[in-house]
């Protein structure tokens, strides 16, 4: 793609901003900031990856993956700002998901141990885990608000924290996985995913592109499940005070 063609794509941003002005949505500033940030961030990442791919040093791979996990944990943690320690739990869940995924992919020889494979797939895995974490926390807040009376009644009857919150936790984990599951059901029929589309546009064989996309979809589903269940397991106690009461506004 030429620079002129790339600049021409700004017309889509302009149209979006005009719609916002027309409908008085007040999103023009956010759209402008998001456009600038995404462009700058992607260009910087492109140069960083170009350097890492050429050096092929494992240290740089670990650093990049570490930054991804830190940013993802911070962003997902915004969904539960008042819960102390939640970002650490998110980081643990995402790190475990990344470790399990990469161990299986590399251990079975599904991908090659090179930056060109590890970094992009790590980004997809961590991104999926971040979204699931954010959805789970959002749903947990709604669940605890609507089920406060039930949970407090169970606690009063002698239930443990886990027993009292179990049903809300299960519903939240299921809810956080719905986008991933729905995406798997409709992939290829409603949408052509990014990796597959990118490979086809770049001239790859469509069947080969589909094979890689199947790999990614399976990785996404497993990362969603692992992150959701693990984060729920290690964070449920944070929704309670030290003396075992449900946090106000939980």
UniProtKB/TrEMBL annotation:
Coiled coil: none
Highest taxon above the source species: Bacteria
InterPro entries hit by this protein: UPF0014_fam
Topology relative to the membrane: Multi-pass membrane protein
Transmembrane helix recorded as keyword: yes
PANTHER family: PROTEIN ALUMINUM SENSITIVE 3, UPF0014 INNER MEMBRANE PROTEIN YBBM-RELATED
Protein name: Iron export ABC transporter permease subunit FetB
Organism: Paenibacillus oleatilyticus
Recorded name of the encoding gene: fetB
């Amino acid at each position: 793609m030429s620079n002129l063609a790339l600049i021409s794509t700004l017309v889509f941003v302009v149209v979006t901003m005009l719609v916002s002005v027309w409908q008085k949505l007040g999103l023009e500033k956010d759209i402008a900031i998001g456009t600038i940030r995404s462009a700058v961030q992607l260009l910087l990442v492109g140069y960083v990856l170009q350097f890492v791919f050429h050096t092929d040093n494992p240290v740089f791979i670990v650093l990049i993956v570490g930054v991804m996990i830190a940013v993802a944990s911070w962003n997902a943690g915004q969904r539960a700002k008042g819960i102390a320690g939640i970002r650490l739990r998110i980081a643990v869940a995402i790190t475990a998901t990344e470790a399990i995924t990469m161990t299986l992919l590399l251990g079975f020889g599904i991908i090659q141990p090179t930056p060109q494979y590890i970094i992009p797939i790590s980004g997809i895995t961590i991104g999926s885990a971040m979204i699931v974490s954010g959805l789970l926390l959002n749903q947990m807040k709604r669940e605890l608000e609507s089920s406060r009376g039930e949970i407090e009644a169970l606690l009063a009857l002698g239930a443990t924290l886990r027993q009292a919150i179990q049903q809300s936790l299960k519903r939240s984990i299921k809810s956080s996985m719905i986008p991933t599951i729905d995406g798997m059901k409709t992939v290829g029929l409603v949408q052509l995913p990014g990796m597959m589309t990118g490979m086809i546009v770049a001239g790859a064989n469509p069947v080969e592109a589909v094979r890689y996309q199947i790999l990614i979809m399976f990785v996404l589903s497993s990362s969603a499940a692992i992150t959701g269940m693990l984060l729920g397991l290690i964070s449920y106690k944070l929704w309670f005070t030290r003396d075992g009461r449900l946090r106000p506004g939980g």
